[in-house]
Amino acid sequence: MNRAVRMVLSTTLVLGLAASALSVVQTPASGKSKERAYLIAYKNDIPSDLEERIEESGGSVETVIDEVGIVSATSDDPDFLEKIREDKEVLAAEEELEIFLDEEEPEAADGQPITDIPQPDWDDPDQNYYDLQWDIKRITNNFKSHEISKGNSRTVVGIIDTGLDFDHPDLRDNADEEGSKTFVPGTKDAWDQNGHGTHVAGSIAANGKMLGVGPNLTVRAYRVFGATGGAQQSWITDALVEAANDGVDVVNMSLGGWRWMAHNYGEKGDSASMVAYHRAVQYAVKKGVTVVVAAGNDSRNLGSLHDMQEYWKETYGLDIKGPSRVVPAQIPGVITVSSSNEWSEDEIAFYSNYGNPIDIAAPGGDNGPEYDRLYRQDPKGDYLDKRDFRYRAFSTYPTYLPPYFTSNLKGYAFMHGTSMAAPKVAGIAAVIKSEHPDMKPSQVAALIKKTAEDFGKRGQDKYFGAGEANIYNALTE
After folding, report:
1. Catalytic pick among 161, 170, 238, 298
2. Where is the active site (predicted)?
3. Choosing from 57, 75, 340, 419, which is the catalytic residue?
4. Residues in contact with 225: Cβ distance below 8 Å, sequence separation at least 6, in sequence order
5. Which domains does the chain show, CATH number per domain?
6. Across 295-387, where does the E strand assignment appear?
7. Is 359 a catalytic residue?
8. Could you read off the pLDDT of 282-294 as tens digits, one per residue?
9. What is the mean pLDDT of residues 460-470?
10. C-alpha distances in angstroms, 370 versus 104, 121, 123?
11. Does 419 participate in catalysis according to the annotation?
12. Is 199 in the active site?
């Protein structure tokens, strides 16, 4: 079984889920002979005698992703990495880290949970929560885009995330359980035990008490996170390649994090994980898949090397001199989405990353204007009690999980983050594809940018990119 070891942040890779408020938790491995997971990128095709080579180096093969020349392996040999790097066919190899989720703590001094919204009555077809959907209403022009196109079931959005609640009343008709897959060792299905993936799916294709961007679209889960988090690069890479092979039209990746790449990393050039991301995205795009990703929630300028290095220093005490990237937000070929909010056309959400890599913005919600003002004055201040959860994005949540702490609602939740922004754009891309199935990813991206609402400074800017995406505008172009 593929079991990655938890590592301290002084290693060369860091990942996190770009969720409502989810981040990295990594702790030192205990013991000296524990089995560790490794990621290996080959220069060209994977050698035919792969297993023999890995075994000779003291390891065993776990996952082989032939299409992109990536392999994961495990070993308890402390010299495994040194040995495998001696293989002339290996471009890069490194210890593979596992990502864990660190959710917001409801016990802290907090904004009050929302308790005045009626619980869902699944037997009442007239009950709905449309009035809570400021985000979807804005990018659909008050649902007018649905009168033109709701998408169709032939158009599939692959959601690389925590899985789905396939039995949610708002999703069950559109969620493809049979085609969904899990890449998490020890799991047998793609059911969501965290909530994040189901929330993402609702923004794309919910059709019930709430409505997604494309209520007739099909959503399919590619589960890479467990109930309490945990995802390795090989699982994410494998999921993206598999989604492309399955013929999905759009992929949503509301995940990401910082990667530091020192020059001549590992004496083999680029890091194996960065190679994996580049190759997997390129592979998907060549197969016609539009890949939409979250910009991340670090409040950092992705176009500034100084800002990135400062982030490492302030957050982790690491004095990094080499280049740093947020992935997949800064991988060529993706649509990178920053987060807008309900109350301003001039300011993006306080947590959203920004900079030259931003292609487009979409509503991801925030904690309201008062919290925003305080945060911008002092990002390290303590004013959680000023959070107003009604400004967050409302969407589906697993019916079998306890309510998310921002409200007492069952089956729905208020969350915020670039994770909530990206699926709006994924939904827009999918509706466009349903109307124009022959469009290439670059053409889909161009139409989304061309028809965006011009928020922020006039024209392209580092906060909103081309502006806030709008499916009504795209359909009436």
Report:
1. 161
2. 161 (charge relay system), 196 (charge relay system), 419 (charge relay system)
3. 419
4. 17, 99, 101, 161, 162, 163, 184, 194, 196, 197, 231, 255
5. 36-96 (3.30.70.80), 130-475 (3.40.50.200)
6. 324-327, 335-340, 360-363
7. no
8. 999 999 999 999 9
9. 98
10. 19, 34, 38
11. yes
12. no
Written as one string, the DSSP assignment of 49-87 is THHHHHHHTT-EEEEEEGGGTEEEEEE--TTHHHHHHT-
Q: How many angstroms separate the CA atoms of 16 and 102, rounded?
A: 9
Q: Identify which of 98, 106, 96 has the alpha carbon closest to the alpha carbon of residue 20.
A: 106
Instruction: Please identify which of the residues 168, 196, 278, 416 carries the catalytic annotation.
Output: 196
Task: Give the least confident one: 89-93, 260-264, 295-299, 443-447.
Answer: 260-264
Q: Which of 30-34, 332-336, 464-468 has the lowest mean pLDDT?
A: 30-34
Phi then psi for residue 314, to 5 deg, are -70, -40
- The average pLDDT across 464-476 equals 98
User: Helices marked H in 167-210 — which ranges?
Assistant: 196-205
What is residue 27's predicted lDDT score, i.e. its pLDDT? 33
| Mean pLDDT of the region 170-197 | 96
CB 111 within 8 A of CB 388: yes
CA distance linking residue 206 with residue 209, whole number of Å: 8
Amino acid, res. 419: S
Query: Does the pTM exceed 0.70?
Result: yes
